[in-house]
Each structure stands twice: as C-alpha cells, then as structure tokens.
Amino acid sequence: MVKKMVFRIDGMHCTSCAFNIDGELEDTEEISESNTNYAKSQTEVKFDADKISEEKIVEMIKTVGYSARAILG
Predict the structure, then answer these.
(1) Is the pLDDT score of 26 beyond 90?
(2) What is the CATH number of the domain that holds 61?
(3) CA atoms of 26 and 24, how far apart (whole Å)
(4) How would you list the strands of the sheet with 67-72, edge to edge?
(5) pTM attached to this predicted model
(6) What share of the chain in percent tops pLDDT 90?
(7) Could you list the residue range(s) of the whole structural domain that residue 65 is in?
C-alpha cells in the first residue's frame, strides 16, 4: 500500500541539508519519492507501507544527522 506522510525535520541549516535527506531516502527502493523543504523544515515522503515503516524512515533521517517526527499521514 502506497502511503504519503509529512515529517517535521529539526537540525537543517541550509538547502544542502534537504538534499542530504532526499538522497538518503530516495536510495531506498521502498520509498518512491521524497521532497524535503528546508524553509518549512519538513519532508513529504511517498513509500510502500507494506515494506517500510514510519519509524524506519525516521531512523534513516537520523542517520544523516537530523531528528524527525511524523506530523501528517
């Protein structure tokens, strides 16, 4: 099942931060789209909820140095 969620991102300092997050998420085949907006401090992620969890997405964002939490689903 394809699901779209918005995650609040803390710790971004510039647009390169947004590119780092999108790069990490889009390298995962279970995630079909990631659109991170530095100005809004959030990312919208489209993913296969049968293959990856919201918690795993948050953990992936943490691996590149940012904290995240789901805000919309």
Answers:
(1) yes
(2) 3.30.70.100
(3) 6
(4) 31-37, 42-48, 2-10, 67-72
(5) 0.92
(6) 97
(7) 2-72
